[in-house]
Amino acid sequence: MRQSSLNFDTQFRSDITAVELFAGIGGFRLAADRLGLRTIWANDLSSLSCKVYRDRFGPGEIREGDFRELLEEVPAHTLLSGGFPCQPFSSAGKKEGIRDARGTLFQSIADVVERHRPEHFVLENVKRLLTMERGTHFATILGALARLDYLVEWRLLNAMHFGLAQNRQRVFLVGTRLDRLQKSRKNLVDAVKLAQSNDFETGSDIRETIDTPKNWRMIERHKARFETWGLAIGDKFLAQDPAAFSMARPAVFLQEVLEPTVGPEFDFTESTSKWLHENTPVNRFVQGVEILSNQRGGARMGYTIFGIAGVAPTLTSTTSRHYERYKVGDRYRRLTPVEYARLQGFPDDHCRVASAYDRYALLGNAVPPPMAQWVIDQVLKGD
Ligand SMILES: C[S@@+](CC[C@H](N)C(=O)[O-])C[C@H]1O[C@@H](n2cnc3c(N)ncnc32)[C@H](O)[C@@H]1O
Fold this sequence. Notes:
This protein is an alpha/beta fold and 383 residues long. The chain is 29% helix and 22% strand. The strands form 3 sheets. Strands 3-2-1-4-7-9-8-11-12-10 form a 10-stranded mixed sheet, sandwiched between helices.
């Protein structure tokens, strides 16, 4: 999976059916549409998200409600996608480091995989998943999926490597049903090697790693942090921190996606301007983000002033983050909802049926379609 190229093979793939869980405003849906897949079922609990989804994709395109109560409605499909909310697992079933996923939203995903056995799944989550509860959370997820006879690969990706001006690290977990691998390849290890051979600058190291039996460890004997890339099959996994991941530079910077004309409602209010003179100059780039000044080491949330020569910090659905301030020319202002859409790779008017205020949260929660598109494309090409 080479991150530098965003040239998609947009061959017509309407024979591939997709189901989108925890669909939100349809980040995976946009990706699937752009790749020519046919999304046949989608679900979200939030009526506002569903309103946006219907406006964008059609009135009958999403089923609103709690997914745990709608499992029976999910049709058979080829590709399952979803950016599921993080939810603590019960410690009741804790056994040698792997916890009980029963009753959680994640478990409902595993239930669908078990029932329909899609050829592939693509799941997305926050970076913190790799370290939460000393890795127990991720181990539970990995174990539950890999035991269903899927080859599971995960990778930490950054939106800034996908043509977006945002430092947004997300874990993608992709699965391919083992019999699908075996059909097109002589054996599993060959398949893994082939699937990886074009992926990394350090491809030969990866192949050697996969070939060495001692590198495969029991999932339940994980460390407190899962590495940024790995594979799992059955109850075993191997993992690495490939250097090539962090080398790519962003291709687009914040200043290139800003709206040329922005109303005064986005400017600092007089009261918020007052604390500006208390800020200490920083003037450096951290993970591609230009930090101009902050308050004593940046400890106080919302007091950082960002420049526009780098990429934006991670957009989130948290209200306080929408008020982060950027120095644009002589003005200090926050980002507009249109700029949020651009930084996430959505069309400017994607959330037009939501209020300006709500658009920040909807977009901040979404999976960037260009990232999702690249991952799905890679998974399908692995066939
Ligand atoms: C991280 S967001 C996913 C956003 C989505 N990938 C997108 O591109 O907009 C998680 C979504 O899960 C939904 N959700 C939370 N609990 C749910 C449940 N019990 N059933 C269905 N959806 C749920 C939330 O409403 C939210 O839209």
